[in-house]
Amino acid sequence: MNDEIEQLLENVDGDTEIARKTKELPEKTQKYYVHGELVAICITWENEIHPFALYFTVYEKNAQNETLNLKILHHIRQKALKSNKDRLITRDFAPQGHFNRWLQMQNFKLVRTTVEPQIATKDVHVQNEKIQFQTAHQVKQNSYLLKQLVSKCYARYKQVHMINPVASMSRERWQKIIFQDQIDSAPLITIKKDEILAYEFLFEDATNLVTLGWNGQNVSGELNKLQNIQFQWIKERYEFIGGEFDSTDELAIETSKNWNFPKEKRYETFIKML
What we know:
This protein has helices at residues 3-8, 17-24, 66-82, 98-103, 136-140, 143-160, 171-178, 222-235, 250-258, and strands spanning 29-34, 37-47, 50-60, 87-93, 109-115, 118-120, 133-135, 187-192, 195-206, 209-217, 240-242, 245-246, 267-273. By secondary structure, the protein is of the alpha+beta class. The protein is elongated.
């Protein structure tokens, strides 16, 4: 990040989308000036799992005039059309900044809110579950269960991301994605007669923190049984449990309520079809 951009963002929270992306994608930063002063920046990027959208984030020092806003949005739209994208997506923590508030008057719609809370494992109270489970390592050794899990997970992920469709991909590619950081020794599924009842991926985001990932269940209540087993396993090894709970995912909402995750600041996603 150069000095000019660093000065523009000096009062910006480091967790915001623009702060993260200027570090991750500095080469994609587009600058906008008014009377020689840098007043706004824009970064666009793509996501291979969601190939139909162009993602972007914009930061304005102050609320700018309509002419500049329209110019920035035009540049974003042209990039999307050139890349054969059919939708634009931007997201950030609430409350939204100047540009994102203006976008809502340009037919950008709020389609999802996300929270990422944590709870201390000492405050988690589990119940003993008498049900068969397998770890990630065990599942990977069983081709029948592995194939079943990968298919279920891919189908459910597509279901909860219908507003931003998922790429078509082979089972092998999806398997590689979902197992990339999964804790091998952690409970992953519950089963009955070789049929998966529920699954929940667990990821170690820090030495003391496990984060809940993709999940699913065949019948209501089965995921909670698996989580009792998983949370007991986590309690014996970690200090905190984290989650990423989307408003478009009923199981995520249910998990948040069942385990009394605290309310956190909202991360909002806005979309506009082209």
